Structures are given as C-alpha cells and as structure tokens.
Amino acid sequence: MRELIMVRYGEIYLKGQNRPYFLRLLVKRVNEAARPFGATVWLHDSRLIVSGMDDINACMERIRHVFGVHSVCPAIEMDKGDFDAVMQKAAELMQGKSGTFKVMARRSDKRYPLDSPEINARIGAYVLAHVPGLTVDVKNPEHVLSVEIRDWAYLYATVLPGVGGMPVGSNGKAALLLSGGIDSPVAGYLIAKRGVELVAVHFHSFPYTGERSKEKVLTLAGILSSYACGIKVFVVPFTEIQMAIHEKCPPDHTTLIMRRFMMRIADRIADKEGAQALITGESIGQVASQTMEALVCTDDVASRPVFRPLIGFDKAEITQWAERIGTYETSCLPYEDCCTVFTPRHPVTHPRLERVHAAEQSLTDAEGMIQRAVDGVEIVNT
Amino acid sequence: MFCYLDNSATTQPRRDVIAAMEHAMADAFFNPAALYAPGLNADREMDKARDAIANHLGPCQVTFTSGGTEANNLAILGHLRTCRGQGRVIHSAIEHPAVLEACRHAGTLGYEVVQMPVLTDGTTDLAAMERLLTADTRLVAVMQVNNETGAIQPLDEIIALRNRICPDALLHVDGVQGFLRVPARLSADGINTYALSAHKLHGPKGIGALAIAAGTRLLPISFGGGQEKGLRHGTPNTPGIAGLQQAVEGYPVKHAMRERKLRLLQRLQDGIPEISVNGPPADNLAACDHILNVSFPPVRSETMLHALEERQVYVGLGSACSSRKNTVSHVLKAMNVPTQIASCAIRFSLSPDTTQGEVDYAAKCCIDSYQQHKRFTRR
To answer: Which end of chain A is more exposed for a tag (fewer CB within 10 A), N or C?
Structure first.
C-alpha cells in the first residue's frame, strides 16, 4: 500500500490525434514540478500518477499550479485482493468527515469478483457502520468516496481543483511587457495558462528608478515563472529614450509615444526570441494611455498581434486575480517603475494617429536610440 | 571614489571594534551569569562597558538592549507600566518610529497621547509645549538630535518646563543620533532615561543601551531569567557589548565634522543656487555637526540618490528607516516643508572619518547630477 497523487487533465481530453503530443508535454511539466520532491510521474489510464514524494501536501500544491492540470487528489493504492482491508481503509479515509456521502466504485478489471453496485453497497455499509456522523445520499452527497478497481485498488475522497489551461509550451511563445504594477503579471499568467511560453521585457530608467524597483520586477517574474516554467527577463535601459521624448515631444503626448517605443523594442526582442505575439496588461479606459484611441496608436507600431487578456476587466477584478496568483503583495511595494517625472499632468485621451506621427518626427535619432536600448539589454533568467 | 555619506543610517565598524568583538567571541565567550571565574570575568567586562557609557552621561544605570528601538520601547513602556494607565504622554512630532509607535501603543493602554509641534527649523516649539504639559503628564519623549534634519532639541528648556509643570513626569531622550556628538547628562531632575545605539558610532548592529538616572524606576517589558537587574532578560550579547564599549572608548574627541559639513554645503550652494536647507541653518548652534539635509528642487530625492549611487556616493533619503514607504517624511511634514521641496530632500550624514576630499567629490557629483537631471521635471 502506498500514497500517491492522481492528476487529472481537462481540455486535453478534447484533442483528437494530437492528444499524445499534449500529454507528453503535460507529463514533462508535472515532472518538472514534482521532481524537487523526489517524486516520479507516469501516465496511466488517462490520468497522471505521481508517487514517491517526500511531502505529499507540498507536492500536490505545486502540481495544482501546473497549467493543464484539471484537479489533483491524494489517493491510496492498495492490494485489491483483500477486500476487508479495502473497506477498512475506506472508513479510515472518511474518518473525521460529517454530513452526507456516497461511494462511487469503478471497476475496469471486469474479472473482479464484485461488480460496481456490490462494491458501493458493501463499502458504503462498512463506512456507515464505522464512521459516526455520516449518512448516505446518493443523489447529492457532500462527500464522494471513490474506489477504482484496476490492477490495484485506488481510494480517494478529496479532489482539489487545479489551475486548468494547457501545458506551457504547447501553444507557442509570446513576449510580455512586464512592469512592477498589478496588471501585467496577471496578463502574463492568463496567456501562459493557455500553454504559451513567456519571455518578459522590462523597461528600466536608472537613475529615475533604482535597483530595488528592478528587483521587484524580477521577483514578480519569479512568481510568474513558477507557473510558466521559467521566464527569461530582458531588462531594457530606457532612460535615454524617456529623456529624449520628454525634451522633444509635446507634453500631452509623451506617455503615448513612450508606450510606442516600448512596443517597438519589445517587437525587436520578440523577433530575436522567436516570440509570435506581444502581451500587455492594458484594459480599456483604465488610464489615458489605454483609451480606445490610445490603444490604436500603440498597436500601430507592433508588427505582430498584441494580446491584452485584461481588456475587459475592471481594476477590482484584476486585483482579485493578482491576489489569487500571489503577485499582489509584491506589486504593491512602493518602488516606482516609471518615475512620475515623466508622467504628464494632462495626457491626451483621444490621440489622433497623424498627430502622434508628427510629434515623433522631432525624435530624429529614434532608430539609433532603439538599437542602443536593444543592445544594452540585460538578460536575467527566473 | 567610494564616498559613504549615510552615517546616520549606519556606520562602518572600526577594525578595533571588530577585534574586540572577535576576542569576546573566541576567548571570552563565557556566560556572564556563570559562577566560575571566566564567567565572573565576562560579567566584569560588561561592567567596564557600562562605565565607559556612564562616563559620558553621568551616574546612571546602563541596561544593554538589542539597539535603539528596544531601548526606546523599554523606557517608554517600562515607565508606563508603573503608571496604571492614567495621564498624558507627550512626544515631539519628529520622533523616530521607535518612539512614535511605542507612544501610539501607550494610547491603547489608556494614556492620552499628545504630539508636540516643532518650529519650521525642526526644533521643539517650546511655547506649544508649555501649553500641552499638564500636571498629570506621565512621560515626555523628545529626541536629542533629529535623525533626518540634525536639529538639536532644546533639552535644557524642556527640562525646566517639565520641572515646573509636571515634575513627576519621566523625561525620555532618544540619544541615538546625539550620543558622543552632543553632550548629555542624566539626573533625577534632568534627563531620566536615554537610549543609544552602537551601530551609529562605528560599533556593531544589534546592540544598544538604555541609560537610567538614579531614582527612576522601570518595569520590564519582556520576561525571562532576570538578567540586567531584572529589566532586560536573556543572556547578554557579550560580543556586541564589547564592540559597543570599544566604539565608545575609541570615538574621537576631536574631529572636523562641522567644518566638513559646512564646506559641503558651501560647495553645493556655489554650484546649485536653488538649494535649500531643511532644518536649522547649518552654522547655527541648533544644527548638529554631522547631518545636513538639503533639497535640490526640482530633482527628486530618489533620482538624486540613484544618480549619486552610480558614482559610488551613498547618501540618505530623509531617513533610511522610512525609505520603504512611498511618502514624504513625517519630520519634514511637521516642519511645514512644502511637498515639492520635501520630495527632493537628501540627507548627508558624516562620520569623524569623512575627509575633505570626500565631501568635495560628493558636492561635485551632486552638482553634475543636478545639471543633468534638473531639466526633467513634471510637465
């Protein structure tokens, strides 16, 4: 008899001939998550079995965070031959629970002497007799005790939901524009959840922002990378460009033009890294640079799709997500990532593309500045 | 050139301090409470350290603590434990959080906590204080030297007011920034308790002391084995105490900090006419020797700090303790410094080791950074 973790996958069920490809990737991701606990993972009867971990709860918690995992449950694997032992174990699993329950048996070993209704009845009766405080309700039970008879007997009574989604790496690669704020880490999470591998691009304006603000962003990337299987962060020196925009462009257009430069640079990095799309944490109308017109102006310079998974989210909803994925507290540290010096008091909210193009004309060395920023990138692996 | 001008945040421990601590750990490691001779020797060493401190403060009982914060807490809460939850607690508006928060806690114990305002130069408003003191005041907490502005508080006048209006109130002085740099004496009708910390004096972190004048009774605020006359329990930090003693004994009597500070200011004023001093005028008697707080509007504090950091000049941002909060310092706010000026405040704090070359270099770097960044203001 031993303890193991059963991992179920969700949407991969819907895949047809591609299913083996997705499953291989999921096994790889779960393996990466479980390896630090000394566990091994294998695919068995359309679910993943994890065994040999030194700390089952910590390992399960980690696996719940792997994209592609629908749910996990701690299970007991035991010899199916000794049915008395199986019943005893079942009662042990239900010990301490109260309310209604039912037993749900599945028998894939058709040579087993008891069929499913018999197993249900016998184990149900045993549990009822040995665990105080439980009654049977087969229609709408509070607890379900599952018993599966395969090569071994498997028992489990707790199912914990996973994060869902698709295994990372199954759906290409995208570059996330990552600031120290609340939104962009959530945007990265939601895209990575669909199986997309991430690289992150962060703009750093020393001395207007310091080491601690960079550290904060790297911490955020670290939290994200626990879901997204490692993120390469490109820290772009952005001071020269911010200063030039501040000096040469109309004050009400500076933020928008800055966003356009960020897009251009992220685009170049995406090229180098083979990322097919950009991701931002923008949401319509949240700030001046995120009005419909402003988004049109930023999109104008990107040569690939820009994904904005938070586009229809309210700030409160984004905050809830940030809390759920564990980035909120770090995002709230006070170190600035875009100094207020460079934020105009009255930014334009309905920019027109022709005016933006005209305003950018004064930046005669735009190409040189972008090249220097890209060349000066510092790469940090998280 | 490496130029460390953040000595009010912490100082570099001197070599002889480190050697004294090493000796205390490697050879004289015994528990001072042990009955055998080496234990007794360790106990005697602690008494020598107490004497070294008392030499500068007059007759007093010296209780070792984990640092300035604990010493402040012990004085304030240890005294209030003897007062049965009634009466007034008065502190100045510019105290360190160790005092502010301890007083705030006193509010939850039933005391009426009142804040004393300061004048625009950062010294206590004595007229306001006179109005706020009441006969039932239990505690007056005023720091000796403000950690952000270097303003020396008028303790003689404060003592006179206390003695006239509420002679039974305890006068607690946070001497963390003042000890050895501005004289102080303890007595029953003067300063009653005085907190100090080693790491501001080229000693180690994690050790400080509360000096208690004769006739002042405190109760402990943590509990244990009865060490430090039952006032501060736990095995004493003998290496730290040895380091504190060495730091105190080795602190130079003569130094040129004031001269260096004034030279730094002069250089800065020559290069940056827009500069303003936060606190008393630098050459005033109310300004301490080692702290200079200035604003370089419109260049924001963080920008200046990071620009200087790039050239290995390390300065403070108002107060190192509050640099994790994104707000204007409560000290400058209490002095009514306008937000635009306060958000541009930089604190230079010198040590006796600061050289003329260092202050000249720091001034040059400030002027260069100022010229480079002053164009970039919010529009």
So the answer is: N
Q: Where are the beta strands (DSSP E) in B186-249?
A: 193-197, 208-213
Instruction: Out of A136, A163, A190, pick the residue that ends a domain.
Output: A163
- Does A168 fall in a domain? no
pLDDT tier for residue B267 given thresholds of 50, 70 and 90: very high
Q: Are B309 and B302 in contact (CB under 8 A)?
A: no
DSSP H or E segment with residue A33: helix A19-34
Strand intervals (E) in A211-284: 232-237, 277-279
Closest CA to A220 of A188, A253, A268: A188
Question: Per-residue pLDDT tens for A128-145?
Answer: 999 999 999 999 999 999
User: Within the 264-323 window of chain B, which residues sit less than 8 Å (CB to CB) from chain A?
Assistant: 300, 302-307, 309-310
Q: Chain A contact for B372, CB < 8 A?
A: no
pTM value is 0.84
Catalytic residue among B60, B166, B321, B366: B321
Q: How many CB pairs under 8 A join A and B?
A: 53
Interface residue B376 vs chain A (CB under 8 A) = yes
- Residue A196 is predicted with a pLDDT of 97
Size of chain A, expressed as the number of residues it contains: 382
CATH number for the B15-250 domain, one of 3.40.50.150, 3.40.640.10, 3.30.365.10, 3.40.50.2300? Answer: 3.40.640.10
Q: Which of B300, B307, B379 sits opposite A251 (nearest CB)?
A: B379
